[in-house]
Amino acid sequence: MSYNKILKVIFVTLFCFTLNMMSAKISFAVFIDIQEAQDIAENWLMHSKGLILDGMGGEIREVVHYHGGIHGEPGYYMFFLAPQGWIAIPADDRLEVIRAFGSGSITSKDYENSPMPHFLRVD
Fold first, then answer.
1. Residue 27: which of 97, 75, 94, 95 has the closest Cα?
2. Series of mean pLDDT values for 10-residue runs along the chain (123 residues)
3. Domain spans of the chain?
4. Which of 28, 53, 102, 106 is surrounded by the fewest CB atoms within 10 Å?
């Protein structure tokens, strides 16, 4: 193979690679901090009243950040509501905005001793 043919192959390969990268929709995760998560929770509570929140409180009592597993994922925030209810919001914007919610009365200690963290954990 001649030197010119090798250069043409390299050029065409780089051109195709560059064109492919420019047209691809690459998604990168963005970490959601506790304030942004709280804004999401408050907004969701405000706009969901009467629709699906029967029995859930409208005031945030406690927020706990549960970190991800062995792969270093950012985890999720658990909002415990007053007088009852909870909302789980991922700390990673690649996932749905509200991961889970419920109207049961639960504290952070009760939550940690239940099987729920295993279902919500992001590894």
1. 94
2. 72 69 59 90 82 71 81 80 88 80 85 81 58
3. 34-120
4. 28
